[in-house]
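OP here, attaching both records as promised.
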Amino acid sequence: MNSDDCLIIIDVQNDFCPGGALAVPEGDAVVTVINSLARVFSHRILTQDWHPADHRSFASNHPGASVMQTAVLDYGPQVLWPDHCVQGSAGAEFHSGLETQGCEMIVRKGFRSEIDSYSAFYENDQHTSTGLAGCLRERGFQKLYLAGLATDFCVLYSALDGRKEGFEVYLIEDACRAIDLDGSLAVALDQMKRADIHLVQSAALLSRSS
């Protein structure tokens, strides 16, 4: 891959894989694909959900609320999730099969109790920055390739924000899996296409680099 290309690996953590607190169907299937891609990208960045136990996106912190219910918080609508990726827990750790050596940065998000963070670039108020965009620009990256979990939430918002920040963004479809909550995968793919985000398969990238 080119020196201005960066692979961003989103939230491949135990709680998003089978057996986890918020398991994405076939979430662990992305690990082998991402590991293959990691060998052809010189630059890789990881993101990691990193929630305190009292996080406001957890249904358990809203008496009487149900998991997957939508609540209106200070910054707008928020899906209430099961407790997941709690700081320091086994569920917050990266999947044991994921090859993380050689990654240049870990962006931790959602660590503020009062606000959730799907995107690798901004928290859900669309104002509080993670600092990732500035780092990528300073390093001279122009093309971002996204993989990980879940296509219709954290990957989607990261892709859209990457475009807003002026990067050329590629979604590696077979290196992602979706929650697909009430048809959210189809909606997410349509949003990305309309935002001029390129949908690609890992095989095309691997063959180009062979």
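Record two, same layout:
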Amino acid sequence: MTKPDSQFFAFDHKGKSYRIHYLDWGKTESPVVICAHGLTRNTHDFDYLASAICDQFRVIAIDFPGRGSSDWLEDKNDYVIPTYLQVVSTLLQELSIRSFNWLGTSMGGLIGMILAAQNPQSFQRLIINDVGPEVPSAAANRIIDYLSKSEKFSNLEDFEQHVRQVYAPFGQLTDEQWRHLAKYSYQTDGDGKITSNYDPGIVVPFKTASNAKADLWPLFQSIKAPIYLIHGENSDILLPSILKKMKQLQPNLTSTMIKAVGHAPALMDKDQINIISNWLNN
């Protein structure tokens, strides 16, 4: 697997500077694909994809604040999309990127929809992985339930079994792929225990009344860039009714269903990587 450059940039927020981590594959002069992970995930979710397409594209994957190797935010109420949009803006300025494609899984897809609507001049193509302009209440409650539990493990073997259980909706991954996810999904606490490498505080905004459900439908409808939608057959986030409305509002939207997968397709196997690569090159 091709190895990326591991880099950091400074994100100034509320009078404090945070280190934000990103991985950078490919040549500087190649067309840019920015990859954005889901709520509890990190840059390494895209290692297989980036390694496969970095001969044609410069692939940049961000660890959003509170995830992976990025700093945790002081105010947990700031783990919201407006903050992440500021992070992306800082990255684009830091790397002098004026034009880019966007691939976003779940939360990353929501960020991509807003960016595509608000920045038509710089946005080339949008790939959304298993999310729509609204998140069903039942799925949101499931997420809150999961984030409210803080589990710790004594060894990596037990942690990998936890990863396999929690992310079972990703689909039938190989042992190597599960090991990869586990390897880049843990941290060790002060007691030597192993736990997931995200700030438990990311759940805070979900529990506050101020985090009212955003209506992204008008923004989604206004997107001018070509859109490719990947969705899991058994997803509880991207329901058939939401998918139907997305196609009505964006008649030229291209979509592919990944069978026997929930939320969200892992984008690690060759078939899923090929459909993304082929669409970007079309």
